[in-house]
């Protein structure tokens, strides 16, 4: 019986081949261990970071936690009226709309905020998209992330979308998104690892080896850092 030659892998270096093998092994164990909502936690909490520790907003935060959305909305509207440029006030307000299932008011408020303070609107939309992603309401997460302008951090936005696609098992869209991240920063280890893994799972070994070998470059993993 003739043995397969695996010519496509003939140019892969031995360390890279080991890495590819480990990637495939990790993927076969579980897709939830290193891909999914553990990573989404790095972007934000359901509220803007530290908002729960800010005593100025404690009444509204407590109202949201208790599902008292009418009370939360009343308080948040007061915060936003006093400080129109305060992102925390606007986020509390939109979370109140979300809790009350008042998406019409949510969209109106975000549209008005986009007209008045575009940068602030983008930041709030990103928090809202992340909030929906954590709840596994992916359609809404993508809907609001798609309304964010190109002026907002594309790195953060693409990473969020990539995580959403991975959780939806939309591999092709995930690969495309992480390739966009690669063009933004071709030395980001998590991007290289994810692309190597996804291409390995898809049987695209040449592409997988390319990203795996980039992971082993000294500029990505400095020698001193690996020895220490």
Q: List low-confidence stretches.
A: 4-48, 222-228
Helix content range of the residues, please? 55-70%
Number of helices: 13
User: What is the SS-derived class?
Assistant: mainly alpha
Describe the sheet with the most strands: none
SSE pattern? HHHHHHHHHHHHH
Distance from first to last alpha carbon: 48 Å
Average pLDDT figure: 79
Q: What is the number of beta strands?
A: 0
Q: What proportion strand?
A: under 5%
* CATH fourth-tier homologous superfamily of the domain at 48-151: Tetratricopeptide repeat domain
Whole-angstrom Rg: 22 Å
CATH C-level class of the domain at 48-151 is Mainly Alpha
CATH architecture of the domain at 48-151, by name, is Alpha Horseshoe
| The CATH topology of the domain at 48-151 | Serine Threonine Protein Phosphatase 5, Tetratricopeptide repeat
